[in-house]
Task: inverse folding
């Protein structure tokens, strides 16, 4: 009756795999038995992640690449035999008040969080469809969204726009890819203990404001999010598509 | 427990399940027991409670059953207040009487409000108080909702009213119980093939409606839902509260 999280014989690709959530997801998927293709711009980060995966007796293959470069992604996909799971994770944030958002920051965030997310998802879907038995073995795409894909927040207007967009994309992809048994979902974490968030939390006032907004009174751990991603990646969630796992300690329930 | 991947493990936890003898309740009891949790089953059929006990005890966990109607507030209250262990509630008992809005009988309305709303509220309140009294320091409550807690369906006006209500209750409870580290979530399945829904599926028109409404061309199984409930019951979801896992093959993504 209980389906265990088991990704043996699956090949997964994770973008932004060098740090934070991408790193945690890559390791968690490998722990669940998947072979993981890890992508990042920083070679030294990839080497570290690959080492941890090897230590936990998992299997990975690393590619240095910039996800905004579609040609690079295409080339990498040519080098892998099959793809079953995509964790579309690469993303960034540059908080600014709406009236002060610099044009270059809006361009940068939108190109990364939306345009690259779309292109990577499209290319990976096409790769998934190359497997003749896809309908039987299924596929799973998980977009790394955010609680800010569900509700607004001060100084997060561009990020809000990007992540709400990803939520819309996930639903549309879910409907269009369902005939091929490829499921598409998002994970919406609250603030997670990652290097990116640690930087924001150096501002004590901001940190206490944010913690006040999380009913459970703590930030999420990387393992909380990585476990949710692994749950969505395999057959444990075979009838879950076009929806979100909200890992936010109650932030959006208010 | 790996580095970043958390297991669905319920060893040492005790779960109370209402409507435990049939369908989703029975499957959930089995899944929780498979994850190592002890089971307290509430149902109205002694033979079925006994047969569930035989199944559960084979999994080497403890099993207690209580033959009682969930509407019987005082019997339920007295039972729950005597429990020595309680960590998880699966608030599952529910029913449906499909009727067109214009023809809903007063008795149908009363029945659905009593079972799906009032009993759900009362049992959740009693269990939350007991978990706090037992100083368990954490808990998880899962309300079994439905896609009709999110969208409407034909001849489902009362059912939708009660299930939308459960969705609201879930979020309200999550906020009030967060400080006790009791998480509250719901699962929203599409129409699952169970003894109760078998008669609906026998109708060809209904069968076609469900099929056409579900982008992933499969019927949701009891195991799909039971796995999601076990995930929410366990520490694998320790930052998920006030939220819903939608198991609908994409029904509500459209």
Result:
């Amino acid at each position: 009756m209980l389906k265990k999280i088991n990704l043996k014989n699956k090949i997964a690709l994770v973008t932004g795999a060098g740090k934070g959530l991408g790193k945690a997801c890559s390791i968690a998927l490998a722990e669940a038995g998947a072979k993981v293709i890890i992508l990042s711009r920083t070679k030294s980060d990839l080497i570290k992640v690959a080492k941890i995966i090897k230590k936990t007796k998992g299997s990975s293959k690393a590619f240095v690449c910039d996800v905004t470069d579609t040609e690079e992604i295409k080339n990498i996909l040519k080098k892998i035999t099959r793809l079953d799971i995509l964790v579309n994770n690469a993303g960034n944030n540059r908080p600014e008040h709406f009236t002060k958002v610099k044009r270059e920051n809006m361009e940068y965030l939108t190109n990364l969080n939306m345009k690259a997310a779309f292109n990577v998802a499209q290319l990976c879907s096409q790769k998934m469809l190359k497997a003749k038995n896809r309908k039987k073995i299924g596929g799973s795409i998980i977009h790394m969204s955010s609680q800010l894909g569900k509700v607004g927040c001060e100084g997060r207007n561009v990020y809000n726009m990007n992540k709400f967009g990803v939520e819309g994309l996930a639903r549309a992809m879910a409907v269009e890819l369902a005939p091929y048994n490829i499921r598409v979902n998002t994970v919406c974490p609250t603030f997670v203990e990652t290097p990116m968030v640690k930087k924001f939390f150096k501002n004590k006032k901001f940190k206490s404001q944010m913690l006040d907004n999380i009913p459970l009174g703590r930030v999420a751990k990387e393992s909380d999010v990585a476990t949710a991603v692994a749950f969505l990646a395999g057959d444990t969630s075979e009838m879950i598509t076009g929806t979100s796992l909200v890992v936010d300690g109650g932030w959006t329930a208010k | 427990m790996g580095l970043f991947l958390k297991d669905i493990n319920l060893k040492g936890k005790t779960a109370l399940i209402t409507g435990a003898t049939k369908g989703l309740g029975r499957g959930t009891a089995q899944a929780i027991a498979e994850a190592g949790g002890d089971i307290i089953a509430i149902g109205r059929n002694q033979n079925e409670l006994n047969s569930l006990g035989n199944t559960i005890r084979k999994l080497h966990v403890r099993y207690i059953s209580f033959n009682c109607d969930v509407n019987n507030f005082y019997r339920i209250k007295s039972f729950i207040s005597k429990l020595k262990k309680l960590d998880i509630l699966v608030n599952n008992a529910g029913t449906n009487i499909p009727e067109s809005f214009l023809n809903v009988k007063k008795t149908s309305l009363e029945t659905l409000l009593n079972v799906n709303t009032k009993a759900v509220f009362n049992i959740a309140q009693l269990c939350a108080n007991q978990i706090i009294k037992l100083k368990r320091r954490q808990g998880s409550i899962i309300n079994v909702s439905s896609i009709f807690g999110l969208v409407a369906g034909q001849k489902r006006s009362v059912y939708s009213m009660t299930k939308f209500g459960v969705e609201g209750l879930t979020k309200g409870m999550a906020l009030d119980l967060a400080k006790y580290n009791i998480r509250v979530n719901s699962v929203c399945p599409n129409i699952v093939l169970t003894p109760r829904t078998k008669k609906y599926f026998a109708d060809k028109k209904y069968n076609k409606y469900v099929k056409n409404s579900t982008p992933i061309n499969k019927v949701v199984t009891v195991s799909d839902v039971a796995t999601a409930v076990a995930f929410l019951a366990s520490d694998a979801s320790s930052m998920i509260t006030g939220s819903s896992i939608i198991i609908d093959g994409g029904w509500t993504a459209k």
Summary: Chain A touches chain B through 53 residues (CB under 8 Å). Chain A has one domain: 11-253. Chain A has a mean pLDDT of 96.
